[in-house]
Amino acid sequence: MEAESIHSLxxxxxxxxxxxxxxxxxxxxxxxEAVLSADNAIALAAISRQLxxxxxxxxxxxLGLGLALVFRLGLIxxxxxxxxxxxxxxxxxGYLLWLCLSNLLPLLQAERGEHSEADATDAAxxxxxxxxxxxxxxxxxxxxxxxxxxxxxxxxVAVSNNLVLVMAGGVIGVIALRLTSGLxxxxxxxxxxxxxxxxxxxxxxxxxxVLRLVAPQLVPPEWLLLALVGLLFAWGFSRRDPLDDSxxxxxxxxx
Length: 255
Description:
By secondary structure, this protein is mainly alpha-helical. The protein is 76% helix and 0% strand.
């Protein structure tokens, strides 16, 4: 979720028709992007952790989000077409739901195993951590951000017809994702439930996309969605993981 997709901000963003007004709004939008894109950031961080080397993780985030930025700008330029092309939105929803289920089920199985085996190894505790090539991780990062941004980019274009400003918002969103993803890589190694919480939030976004297509009247209001994501992250930060064998410093994966 990005700041531009919050409809309650629409009057504020739409009313900012001068560059000076946008400069005043910029710090607010940056802060909102960093907070509201946490569900996206945690998924990207979890994908990046499939590369064990912290330097490779940082490189994957740089390349993946660089490619994601190209995709976002292309989406913004073609947003009117995207709004009317439901198969692409359905494909994005299906991808997010697949990403959620394919990663969440092994994590939940591992959590149940931790209660029965006190001496579980890190590989058992974190089955999603397996080596993948840099190219595969970069591609997955770019596709994941593309699926996440499909709905919010369309909403941003609906809020403002200033293409340059909407593109600037897309750039801000990617920068915020890069910074928060680097932090989440470290936090994922510390908080045992955080990865599961992140993938549950991914599932919520996928469900919302499906509802927008098949039953728009059932789409939950903004406050409810934000409350659910907040509860998920509170649960995710509720238990520290005693098996922390990932000593990567956040500075190693930040630009």
